[in-house]
Specification:
Layout lengths: L13 H19 L4 E2 H14 L3 H15 L3 H10 L4 E2 L2
Antiparallel strand pairs: 1-2
Helix pairs in contact: 1-2, 2-4
Length: about 90
């Protein structure tokens, strides 16, 4: 179990918060789970992330914040998912 807090914005709705948590969990799975995570799921979650946070600066800040607490990159995981030749990706 991880002992850190996810970056969250107070203006996110409950639905947006749930979607962001799903993205954070998918990124963690890509790094931690032996089977990795479904690449298509990562792409869908990342696209939702961009809807929730349309400003590039905000996206980069969230990725930096998440990476500083977890050592995992949301953007690098998304890149790997878009280039995946297999169903699942592992970072």
């Amino acid at each position: 179990m991880n002992n850190y807090s996810y970056p969250i914005f107070p203006d996110w709705s409950k639905e947006e918060l749930i979607d962001m948590m799903a993205l954070y969990n998918a990124v963690e799975s890509a790094y931690e789970d032996a089977n990795g995570v479904n690449a298509e799921k990562v792409v869908k979650l990342y696209n939702r992330f961009r809807e929730i946070n349309p400003a590039k600066m905000e996206q980069k800040q969230i990725d930096r914040d998440f990476q500083s607490i977890s050592d995992y990159s949301i953007y690098r995981t998304f890149q790997a998912a878009t280039k995946a030749k297999t169903k699942n990706i592992r970072m």
